[in-house]
Amino acid sequence: MSENFDFNPRDSEKTLFAALLAAARRIGKNKDILEDVERKPLTYKYLIIGAFVIGAKLAQATQRREAVGVLLPNVNGLVVTLFGLNAFGRVAALLNFTAGTKAIRAAARTAQMRIVVTSRRFVDTAKLEDVIAALEATETDGGGRVRIVYLEDVRKDIGALDKVMGLARATFANAVHRRHGLTPDDPAAILFTSGTEGLPKGVVLSNRNLVANAQQIAAHAKDALHPDDIVMNPLPMFHSFGLTAAGLMPLLKGMKTVLYPSPLHYKQVPIMIRQTKASILFATDTFLQGYARAADDGDLKSVRIVICGAERVKEQTRRLWDKWGTVILEGYGATECSPVIACNLPHNNTPGSVGAMLPGIEAKLEKVEGIPEGGRLSVRGPNVMLGYMRADAPGVIEPPHEGWHDTGDIVAIDAQGLLWIKGRAKRFAKIGGEMVSLASVETMIAGLWPQFNHVVVSIPDARKGEQLVLVTDKADADKVSLQQRAREEGFPELWVPKAILVVPQIPVLGSGKVDLPATVELARRTRPLL
Question: Is the pTM of this model over 0.90?
Answer without folding.
Answer: no
